[in-house]
Design a protein that fits this description.
The protein is mostly beta strands and about 190 residues long. It has strands spanning about 15-20, 20-25, 30-40, 45-55, 65-70, 80, 85-90, 100-110, 120-130, 130, 135-140, 150-155, 160, 165, 180-185, 190, 190. A hairpin with a 2-residue loop joins strand 12 and strand 13 (about 160). The mean pLDDT is about 85.
Length: about 190
């Protein structure tokens, strides 16, 4: 029978290198050159084996659909932080979210953990119309046989906006009636009876 020398794991000497830096073990992601040295015995010379071990970096949990309102800036939308790993940040945090509807904005994952990959993704942001107030200025008229429209202004807080507003036609008959004013704009909504 052939007899092969055996070594216990404690007799083997391992060296883990990434470039010129030595590590105690394969602890973080990276491309390691692992040198395994078999010690010399009475029957054999010392031998060295060199192998390359690649430990890939991981991606993390990505943000899903986020919500915003027309006029918001990206920095007002909170992105997730992964405890002890890193955080998501907007690539252009001062940009506006865009028009009402579905928008996509770049976010990147920042980390100091070498086991995680820093990368960018497109994040879907569902932008809602901004609600505005319609303030009725004049809505009482004397019957004079002509058609009247209600006088109003559209406000976003204290700021007056010039937006399209539709309203029911006012009756030319002497009577009480109800009409509805509705903001008719892509990025704004609001109504009043």
């Amino acid at each position: 029978n052939d007899v092969y020398p055996s070594h216990t794991d404690s007799e083997l000497v391992y060296t883990y290198m990434i470039g010129d830096k030595e590590y105690q073990s394969l602890i973080n992601a990276g491309t390691y050159t692992v040198t395994i040295t078999l010690p010399e015995t009475d029957q054999y010379y010392e031998a060295t084996i060199e192998v390359t071990v690649v430990i890939e970096t991981s991606k993390t949990t990505e943000p899903t659909v986020l919500n915003a309102t027309y006029g918001d800036v990206l920095s007002s939308i909170e992105l997730p932080t992964i405890e002890n790993v890193g955080k998501w940040v907007w690539v252009t945090p001062t940009d506006l979210v865009g028009d009402a509807g579905e928008q996509y904005h770049k976010a990147k994952f920042e980390t100091e953990d070498p086991n995680y990959l820093e990368y960018e993704i497109d994040v879907k942001v569902v932008v809602a119309k901004k609600k505005v107030t319609i303030e009725v200025i004049e809505n009482e008229y004397f019957y004079d046989g002509t058609e009247h429209t209600i006088t109003y202004r559209v406000l976003d807080g204290e700021e007056e906006l010039s937006l399209n507003v539709t309203q029911n036609k006012v009756s030319t008959n002497a009577c009480n009636y109800t009409t509805t004013l509705v903001v008719d704009e892509k990025n704004y909504s609001g109504s009043v009876d």
